[in-house]
């Protein structure tokens, strides 16, 4: 686990169930890095050889990532004792420590796992017997909330279907501002678990204060690997001021980026050298620890960030005190078993009004194109191992998984709801010398019927409008349940000064899925 970004799948391996596939979506996931019907005449070529991938990882939605640095002998010994810690690791000559440890069973019993048919994708916290607080960017589709299950590889606890979701009315999916979501369960839990208290004080936590974040997120701080934790992990981080957080900037794998103008009053930042949260931790709680679970106070919700345990970029959380009145009103009116601590005379102090959503951040500067075979130059190259990376979710029909169908790092698009069933790359600024472009990708169709297809579009104006490149429909262009590696399509545009590409599903149900394992864009 680490402390910054979201969306994952438990445990690693192939556990996609075609018979029980859900209607899950994917939102912004934290990237792990140091420091987006008819076929046209475009070229399409398939091969079973995979290309070498240069991972360009950068922001977005949804966190806890650790690297095991102890030896296998020490690790085995520690596991025999019931716990272990992550230590130091060498990465390209630079020491990177993503610290954390297994939690004691029951210590954070209010921590819950949100799971669809592919497994764990976000965390949350139990604030009433039938109410969960999580991140708004985790919302969408059909899923269950798993309560009282310390080890997700076990069958302990219970799994309860979701009755409805209530995202904060001011949630902005472009800026990830007001990233709170209340989930109402179909019934109260019968598990003997604690409820987490909700912070109502705008003065807490204070700058420099130790806070704890937890989840079942990624445990390997490497760009080319991902391993999700079956056991709940926790790590301590330090609160930093919003102004210092907003000043954060740095270069990650050739991308210059900063938090400037993106940190609002609705956000809370925390970091500690080498400790952070990552994929799969989104929606999980950030707490001030008391002497027991019932005395813990939740101050944040894992929201977003750039990198995992990056020296330049802290983890960003949705500040709970800013939404206290809304949380209290919603829980007390919607819960069938409202908690007395919150609804029977809890703190009614009005927190400051949330700030309006901040403007969308400027597009990052892309890395310098690198020479390739012939005169093709790489514009972007993404394998989704650590989240969306250089891409973004288009909406509730898109989702990232840590592993699926024997592949590590997969984006799934579903149904046919326009941009909501798509994912797209962040704008890449071009130097004006490009007139032809090549997109190479790997895909896997599932449940796609004769009238279903998926399409590739591109934009040269920041996504204001899109131009179609090609569409593929089965069974003429592909068969279901087969990975098609290194599929190639080319298109021309003589006037492009910036470029974004988009993959869009054109199905007609939540059983129509297309999975992507990698995307590479080149120009000449």
Automatic annotation (TrEMBL):
Entries under InterPro entries matching the protein: Peptidase_S1, Peptidase_S1_PA, Peptidase_S1_PA_chymotrypsin, Peptidase_S1A, Trypsin_dom, TRYPSIN_HIS
Ranges of compositional bias, category Pro residues: 351-370
One GO term of the biological process aspect: proteolysis
Record's keyword annotation contains Disulfide bond: yes
UniProt-annotated stretches for the region Disordered: 1-25, 338-379
Pfam families assigned: Trypsin (PF00089)
GO molecular function, one term: serine-type endopeptidase activity
Domain Peptidase S1: 97-332
SUPFAM superfamilies: Trypsin-like serine proteases (SSF50494)
Family indicated by similarity: Belongs to the peptidase S1 family.
Protein name: Peptidase S1 domain-containing protein
Organism for this UniProt entry: Thalassiosira pseudonana (Marine diatom)
């Amino acid at each position: 686990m680490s402390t910054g970004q979201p969306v994952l799948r438990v445990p690693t391996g192939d556990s996609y169930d075609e018979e029980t596939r859900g209607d899950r979506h994917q939102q912004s996931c934290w990237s792990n890095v140091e420091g987006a019907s008819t076929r046209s005449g475009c070229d399409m070529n398939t091969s079973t050889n995979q290309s070498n991938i240069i991972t360009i990882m950068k922001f977005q939605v949804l966190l806890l990532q650790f690297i095991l640095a102890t030896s296998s002998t020490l690790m085995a010994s520690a596991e025999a004792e019931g716990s272990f810690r992550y230590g130091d690791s060498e990465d390209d000559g630079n020491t990177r420590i993503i610290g954390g440890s297994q939690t004691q069973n029951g210590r954070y019993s209010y921590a819950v796992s949100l799971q669809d048919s592919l497994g764990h994708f976000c965390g949350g916290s139990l604030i009433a017997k039938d109410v969960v607080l999580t991140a708004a960017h985790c919302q969408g589709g059909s899923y269950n909330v798993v309560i009282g299950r310390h080890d997700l590889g076990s069958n302990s606890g219970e799994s309860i279907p979701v009755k409805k979701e209530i995202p904060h009315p001011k949630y902005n999916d472009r800026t990830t501002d007001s990233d709170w979501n209340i989930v109402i369960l179909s019934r109260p839990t019968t598990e003997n678990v604690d409820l987490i208290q909700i912070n109502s004080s705008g003065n807490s936590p204070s700058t420099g204060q130790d806070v704890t974040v937890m989840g079942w997120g990624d445990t390997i701080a490497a760009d080319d690997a991902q391993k999700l934790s079956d056991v709940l992990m926790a790590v301590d981080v330090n609160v930093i001021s919003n102004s210092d957080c907003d000043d954060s900037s740095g270069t990650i794998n050739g991308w210059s980026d900063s938090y400037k103008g993106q940190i609002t009053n609705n956000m809370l930042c925390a970091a500690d050298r080498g400790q952070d949260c990552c994929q799969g931790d989104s929606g999980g709680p950030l707490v001030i620890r008391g002497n027991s679970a019932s005395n813990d106070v939740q101050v944040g919700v894992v929201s977003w960030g750039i990198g995992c345990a990056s020296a330049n970029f802290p983890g960003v959380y949705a500040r709970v005190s800013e939404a206290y009145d809304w949380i209290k009103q919603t829980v007390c009116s919607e819960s069938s078993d409202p908690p007395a601590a919150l609804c029977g005379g809890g703190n009614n102090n009005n927190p400051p009004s949330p700030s309006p959503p901040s403007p969308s951040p400027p597009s990052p500067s892309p890395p310098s194109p690198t020479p390739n075979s012939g005169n093709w130059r790489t514009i972007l190259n993404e394998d989704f191992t650590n989240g969306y990376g250089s891409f973004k979710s288009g909406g509730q029909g898109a989702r990232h998984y840590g592993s699926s169908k024997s592949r590590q790092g997969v984006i799934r698009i579903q149904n046919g709801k326009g941009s909501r069933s798509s994912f797209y790359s962040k704008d890449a600024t071009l130097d004006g010398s490009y007139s032809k472009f090549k997109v190479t990708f790997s895909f896997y169709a599932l449940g796609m019927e004769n009238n279903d297809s998926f399409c590739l579009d591109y934009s040269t104006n920041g996504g204001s409008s899109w131009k179609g490149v090609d569409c593929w429909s089965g069974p003429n262009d592909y068969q279901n349940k087969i990975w098609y590696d290194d599929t190639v399509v080319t298109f021309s545009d003589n006037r492009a000064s910036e470029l974004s590409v988009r993959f869009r599903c054109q199905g007609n149900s939540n059983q129509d899925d297309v999975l992507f394992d990698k995307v590479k864009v080149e120009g000449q």
